[in-house]
Amino acid sequence: MFLSYFSNQPYIAYDPAAPLEIDEHDHPARRRGDAVVLFSNRHFDPAAAAALYDTRLDEYRLVEEVGFDGIMTNEHHGTPSCMSPRTNIVAATIAAHTTRVRLLVLGNPLPLSDNPVLLSEEMAMVDLLSHGRLIAGMVRGGGPEQLLCDVNPAFNRERFEEAHDLIIASWTRPGPFRWDGTHYHARVVNPWVLPLQKPHPPIFIPGITSEDTIRFAAVHGYPYVGLNTTMESTKQIWELYDDAARAVGRSPGTEHRGYLMRVFVADREEDALRNAEEFMYLLSGTLAVWLDDTEEYRLEAGDALTFPSTLAHRFEALGPAETRLLWINTPPTF
Question: How many domains does the chain have?
Answer without folding.
Answer: 2
